Structures are given as C-alpha cells and as structure tokens.
Amino acid sequence: MASFGRFIRLALGAWALLVLVTVAPASAQQVNPTASAVKEQQLLQELNRVQGRVSIPDQRSGVLEQPQGREWRDFRNVTLPWIGGIAILGMIAGIVIFYLTVGMVRLEAGRSGRTIVRFNAFERFVHWLTATCFIVLAISGLNITFGRPLLLPLMGLEAFSEWSQWGKYAHNYLSFPFTLGVVLIFLMWIGGNIPNKVDVEWAKRGGGMIGHDHPPAYRFNGGQKMIYWIVVIGGGLVAASGYALMFPFYGTGIQGMQMAQIVHSIVAVLFVAAMIGHIYIGTIGMEGAFEAMGSGEVDVNWAREHHSLWLDEQKARTGPNDGQPQPATAAAE
Amino acid sequence: MARMKFLCDADRCIECNACVTACKNEHEVPWGINRRRVVTINDGKPGERSISMACMHCTDAPCAAVCPVNCFYTTADAVVLHSKDLCIGCGYCFYACPFGAPQYPKVGNFGSRGKMDKCTYCAGGPEADGSKEEYEKYGANRLAEGKLPLCAEMCSTKSLLAGDGEIIAQIYKERVMKRGYGSGAWGWKTAYRETIES
C-alpha cells in the first residue's frame, strides 16, 4: 500500500509538472502589456491635456497634447469678430443717427469771449500721449483680428505681412508709453472722478444730451467719469493681459495665454467702441468741447452750461473780482 | 497624392530620442528649438509610455486658421507648411496648436519672437525645392527627393511611422492584430478627427 501511495504522489507530481510546463508559457502570452498603460482619450477626458516628462532642456514641451486650442480658435475666428463688429459698428451707427437727428450740442448762450483754464499743459500732454498711443494700438490691434478678411485681399500677402509686422512692433513698443499714460491719468484725475450724488441726477437727466437740459456737474460729469473708469479699468486690463502675451511663459502656460488673449481682445474692442464715442463728443459732438484738450482753456459759457458746479468752485477760488459780473448765477440750475 | 501623416506606436517607443537628434541634425534646427520631442507619460510607473511628437500636419489646421497674415499653406501631400517671409511672429499659431509644434527662436524677448519654426515633414518651404534659401530657413527637403521624414526613417524600433496615412494605419493595425494590443494612434483624433480602430 505504501508503494502504491508513493506511485500516486509521483504520478500527481508528474502531471502537475506537465501542466505547469505546457500551460505556463501559454498564459504568459495572454498577458496584455497595455492593460495598465496610459490611454490618450482617458487622459484627455480627465485633464483635457496630456503631459509627461521630456529629456530635452525645454521642459515646457512636456505638454504632449492640449486640444483646447480649438475653442480658442473658435473664439478668435468667430466670436471675437462678432463682438468687435457689433460693438464698433454699433457705436458708429449710433453716433451717425444721433448726429443726424439731434446734431451738435450747441453753446446755448453763445461764446462769452472769456476763457477759463480747464486742463494744464501736463494734463494735456498725458491725455495726448495716451490718445496717440491708443489710436496706433487700436489700429494695429484691429488689424490682427480684422486685417486678414478685410485688408489682406486688397493688399496682397507680402504687403499685408510687412504692414502687420510694423503694426506688431508698434503695438508691442507703444504699450509702454500707453501704460504710463493710463497710470498717470489714474493718479492725476482720481480726485474728480469718484462717483457721487450729482452723477445720479446727471444720469437721470440723460446727461442733458437731448433737448436744452444742462444738469449740474463738478469738474467731471457722469459721462466723463464713465470714460475715466473705462480708461483706468480697461487700460489696466489690456495692459496686464497684453504683457502676459508679450512675455510668454512668465507665469502663464498656453492656456493662460489663451485666456489673456480673450480678455485682451474683448476689453480692447469694447474700449475702442467707447473711445469712438469719446472722440465724437470731444470734437463734432459738442461745441466748445475740443478746446479743453486743445488749448486747455474753455469758454466760460461752456463751463457754465456743462460744468456749473466746477465753475462755481473755480470762481470761489480765484475770487469774485476775477470774473466779470455774471448775468445770472441761477443759470447753474 | 498621398495624405501624409505621422503615427507613433507608443508600445514600441523606447525613448531613445534618435528621432529628435536626427531632426535637429538634418535641418540644422536653431539652438533652443526642437521640432520633435519625445514625451514620457507616467514615467517610472507601471503603464509608462513614450510618444514622439512633432507637428501632426492636422486636417483643417488650427495654426493656419488663426494666422493673422495667412502665412500657412497645405501642400498636395497635405503637409502643413508656412512662409517665414510672411510670418510676423505674433504667437497666435502657438496658442492654437494642440501639440505645441510652433516655436520661436526668441521666446523670452518681448516684441521680437522671431519667425516661427516648426516641423516641415522634411518638405522645406515655399522656396525652390532643394535651394540654399530653402535649406537655411526650413531645412532639408527630403520629400522632394522622394524620401520620407528622417525621424521616422531613423527610428530604431520602427515605432515612429511616416507616410501615407492609409498605409501607416494599415501597418499599425497589422501590428496590433499580431501582438494583440496597442495603445492607439496618439494625437490622431485631435489632429485628423479620426482614429485607428484596433
């Protein structure tokens, strides 16, 4: 019996060995080395990007794939031209309609012939520094968005490329004086641009744009305060986002630069639309307004009609004898 | 004409960087620019894979769509090329590209990124094929000589495939059938809006 038992054990052992030898290689072949492998679609779904390690010095190239450029492309080629087109053409159309129906806001009392200093030389210098930079920046910036569909067919590839190249240089380098101008405007005029109750009244009366209404205002009325804050906030945003684009990878990745471009371009087209309105009211939109930034001196009647409270302040400061006897102080109301 | 594509068989790539070196040498690519690079995902962990990536020469290429000066063009072989004479170095292609292909010789310098440089699929640029000007701006034009991109030709494990999309897809499918696995054609869905069923 003992020998039979040994035979059984031997037979079982031999069979087990046979099984191991024949089956084991077969099962090894069925191991799928990709079972735990990274999957592209899975990574994209989870992170919306595929990133790894590279052995070349440029570590930024470790990002293998980031398909969100597709959404940015859609913004740049479709959404932005619509926003910009509606904002800018809408503003121009509005101005044309307003000018044709209401026309220039006239000086109702006519010119008095006497003037009062509104902006000193430094203020005017800062204004025109910012304004000239803004115009070049606006044209070269709009060229990047609207140049290819509108200008390129007219100019041809070479000429358009040359023009855009200079536009890009101008855009990049003039950003510095523009930013300086925005900072100076912010510091220089912050005092007169804090919104107050007078602005509520001014806004309720529509700024006196229609009819013969002249709501009182200090040095800056509600509309001018709006322009001031558009310049300060809008200028700040375009400057910050613009520098993020000018210094790639300083604190941002590709996604950050896409966001910066979106902020930069939306704020910029709205800024351009607002400035078209500002240019209109400062030139052909209102009689006597341009002088404020031209010679720096406005007619006293202009000041009385549009900035009555400011005129009162100025008169109080310079003394009553400095001005001629005014026909009616009640004109302020 | 063929529709040229790249395909990196990630299950074969051993991250030897021969493709990267071959490309840099063949085209005398400027210092600091890599038209091709190898990215290793999950480095050192189970399931690690390396993928060699360059410009994928996308269908309906995003770079070409967003370029403000329209400096891109697509050849009859569906290779996406650009003109360095027209490029203004604005950086838009580089925001739009899903694969990080466009690069600039002076990325850190404000205002002057320089002309964009990227993989040309060894097909040069708009200048006369094989001319000195073409070589200086874009590198060798192997396609005009009837040769395929050097990165794929040099690949030690034949992981990186270049050539007509249908043919390389067929080669890849056969590999997957034979060995029983494959982690897919990396980047194809993003670049060509299609992938290889396996």
Keywords:
heterodimer; A: 333 residues; mainly alpha; two-stranded antiparallel sheet; 11 helices; disordered C terminus; B: 198 residues; alpha+beta; Alpha-Beta Plaits; 6 strands; 13% strand
Describe the protein's topology.
The complex is a heterodimer of chains A (333) and B (198).
Chain A: H1 2-29, H2 40-47, E1 50-51, E2 63-65, H3 69-101, E3 115-117, H4 121-150, H5 152-155, H6 157-189, H7 197-204, H8 222-246, H9 254-282, E4 297-299, H10 300-306, H11 308-318
Antiparallel strand pairs in A: 1-2, 3-4
Helix pairs in contact in A: 3-9, 4-6, 6-8, 8-9, 10-11
Chain B: E1 4-8, H1 18-27, E2 37-41, E3 49-53, H2 62-66, E4 72-74, E5 80-82, H3 92-96, H4 132-138, H5 150-154, E6 160-164, H6 165-179, H7 188-192
Antiparallel strand pairs in B: 1-6, 2-3, 4-5
Strand order of the largest sheet of chain A: 1-2
Class from helix and strand fractions of chain B: alpha+beta
Average pLDDT level of chain A? 87
Q: What CATH architecture of chain B would you give? A: 2-Layer Sandwich
Largest sheet of chain A: 2 strands, antiparallel
Q: List the uncertain runs of chain A.
A: 25-29, 325-333
The overall pLDDT of chain B, averaged over residues, is 91
